[in-house]
């Protein structure tokens, strides 16, 4: 693929944090390509590095954070020309003026982090528009109406006059989405935007993001710990563990032909897929914090299929097909033949069957 097709390339990104117990290695060589007009999901348990990855794209860095290596190239479209920019090399001023909220927008799990509790909704959306566009008040108000309509709000006047605390969580998230798309960004980053919502509302917000993505040919990075959400929204999936991508592929690759034991564990513990089982299987143990130098495959201790080599050497990516790769020694030609757990195999067969029957 050329940089026409890839809107954002994260290359070998390594990030660490200074802490009292030592250097926390939050990202250890993350490489991700976001295809223009598509949705990628980054999925993994809490602490795997999803938020640090997307916050680094937005250059929201903590004081104790250090970029050890890597680049984040944004292929910026300007007057039909593509101009690659390494976001890590941009000045704060340039980032703020040209990229943040204009080319790349982000929505967070808690809408209140982006909304001002003391300002009426209508005014907040107007301010977002005025921050990037010089237009007359009347035209801007017209735009606020259109945006609120786009995000499925019916009683527009009442909502414009409301304060955030007067709206439900789902409504607030709709407002945040309206603000995010107000400046017509090319890339939208969604950091667990539906996690705090109840299941019905979650589903509506996912549908809304999908609808907006299609209508505006937006590229989306969606981060979540929930593979059920991924299956509804993503074209491509990156599975993350302990600061590394451990498997990536299309949605079909990851759901119907997963190869990494960590992905198996995530799939086995996904409620949406668990209709065949009474009890959800969960991955034993918890992810550990990566402090100082680390050796071997970080998932080995929790992996019931771990080989001796896993405790000594980190696995490289092995190719499953042109778009599907997994970093597990189980894919080495000389590794013992280990098959996907039988219970998961059955569920995948059933999902395939259901898909065939529509
Ligand atoms: N400011 C910080 N100082 C020290 N360590 C940090 C800091 N921010 C993040 N980390 C560490 O970086 C690692 C990755 O965290 P991150 O928040 O990206 O995980 P996550 O996958 O997004 O999880 P969650 O879903 O809980 O947000 C964790 O080990 C975390 O403790």
TrEMBL record:
Q: Which GO terms describe its biological process?
A: peptide transport
Family recorded in the similarity comment: Belongs to the ABC transporter superfamily.
GO CC annotation: plasma membrane
Where does the UniProt annotation place the signal sequence? none
A Pfam family that the UniProt record links to this protein: ABC_tran
Give the subcellular location: Cell membrane
Q: Does the keyword Nucleotide-binding apply?
A: yes
Alphabetized, the UniProt keywords read: ATP-binding, Cell membrane, Membrane, Nucleotide-binding, Transport
Name any one GO molecular function: ATP hydrolysis activity
- What name has this protein been given in UniProt? Oligopeptide transport system ATP-binding protein
Please give the NCBIfam families that the UniProt record associates with this protein. Answer: oligo_HPY
Looking at the record, the residues that make up the ABC transporter domain are 8-267
Q: Which CDD domains would you find in this protein's record?
A: ABC_NikE_OppD_transporters
**InterPro entries given for it?**
AAA+_ATPase (IPR003593), ABC_Ni/Peptide_Import (IPR050388), ABC_transporter-like_ATP-bd (IPR003439), ABC_transporter-like_CS (IPR017871), Oligopep_ABC_C (IPR013563), P-loop_NTPase (IPR027417)
Matching entries from PROSITE patterns are given as:
ABC_TRANSPORTER_1, ABC_TRANSPORTER_2
């Amino acid at each position: 693929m050329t940089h026409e097709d890839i809107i954002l390339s994260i290359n070998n990104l390594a990030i660490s944090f200074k802490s009292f117990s030592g250097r926390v290695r939050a990202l250890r060589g993350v490489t991700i390509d976001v295809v223009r007009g598509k949705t990628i999901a980054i999925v993994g348990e809490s602490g795997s590095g999803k938020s640090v990855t997307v916050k680094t794209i937005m250059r929201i860095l903590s004081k104790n954070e250090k970029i050890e290596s890597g680049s984040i190239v944004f292929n910026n479209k300007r007057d039909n020309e593509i101009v690659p920019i390494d976001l890590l090399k941009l000045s704060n001023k340039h980032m703020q003026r040209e990229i943040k909220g204009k080319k790349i927008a982000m929505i967070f799990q808690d809408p209140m982090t982006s909304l001002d509790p003391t300002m009426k909704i209508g005014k907040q959306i107007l301010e977002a528009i005025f921050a990037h566009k010089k237009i007359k008040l009347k035209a801007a108000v017209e735009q606020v109406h259109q945006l609120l309509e786009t995000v499925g709000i019916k009683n527009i006047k009442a909502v414009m006059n409301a304060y955030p605390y007067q709206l439900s969580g789902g409504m607030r998230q709709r407002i945040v989405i309206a603000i995010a798309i107000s400046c017509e960004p090319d890339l939208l980053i969604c950091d667990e935007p539906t996690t705090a919502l109840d299941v019905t509302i979650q589903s509506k917000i996912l549908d809304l993001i999908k609808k907006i993505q299609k209508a505006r040919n937006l590229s989306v990075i969606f981060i979540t710990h929930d593979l059920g959400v991924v299956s509804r929204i993503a074209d491509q999936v990156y599975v993350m563990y302990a600061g590394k991508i451990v498997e990536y592929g299309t949605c079909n690759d990851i759901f119907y032909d997963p190869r990494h034991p960590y992905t198996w564990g995530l799939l086995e513990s996904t409620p949406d897929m668990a209709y065949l089982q009474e009890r959800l299987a969960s991955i034993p143990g918890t992810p550990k914090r990566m402090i100082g130098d680390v050796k071997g495959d970080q998932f080995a201790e929790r992996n019931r299929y771990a080989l001796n080599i896993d405790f000594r050497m980190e696995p490289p990516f092995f190719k499953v097909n042109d778009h599907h790769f997994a970093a597990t020694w189980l894919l080495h030609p000389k590794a013992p033949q280990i098959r996907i757990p039988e219970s998961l195999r059955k569920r995948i067969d059933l999902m395939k069957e259901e898909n065939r029957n529509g």
